[in-house]
Design brief:
The chain has 112 residues and is mainly alpha-helical. The protein has one domain (18-111). The chain is built from 6 helices and no strands. The protein has helices at 2-16, 20-31, 54-61, 69-87, 91-94, 98-111. α2 (20-31) packs across α6 (98-111). The longest helix has 19 residues, at 69-87. The N and C termini lie far apart (41 Å).
């Protein structure tokens, strides 16, 4: 029981360190959606032949070919994992991302 309370306390403390502006920017960055990238190696197993070729990238970008739903689901999952990892970084690292900086500036204008 003590361990559970300690973990909950640490989670509470870690969320207290972020400002309203940073939380706002984190939320906006997390909710931003784009087409998932097709270059995640963990998802290659869902491709024909198990590898990504230059021709596949070219054909997919022009809408000539669509990969399996499993491949796109895997790519979206990988994209979400990248976002979670990005959000867990320090503000100094996050602010170097142009999209995040844009959200941060917008949130700053709201809270100040």
């Amino acid at each position: 029981m003590d361990k559970i309370l300690l973990v909950l306390f640490l989670i509470f403390l870690s969320s207290c360190g972020r400002s309203d502006i940073e939380n706002c920017a984190d939320d906006k960055f997390s909710s931003y959606t784009s087409e998932p990238s097709i270059v995640y190696p963990n998802c290659y197993k869902y491709l024909p032949g198990g590898e990504l070729t230059t021709q596949m990238i070219f054909d997919e970008s022009f809408g000539r070919v669509k990969f399996s739903k499993k491949f796109y689901k895997c790519a979206r999952d990988e994209q979400e994992n990248e976002k979670k990892h990005f959000i867990s970084q320090s503000l100094r690292k996050k602010i170097s991302n142009q999209l995040y900086e844009t959200y941060y500036r917008r949130c700053k204008s709201i809270y100040e």
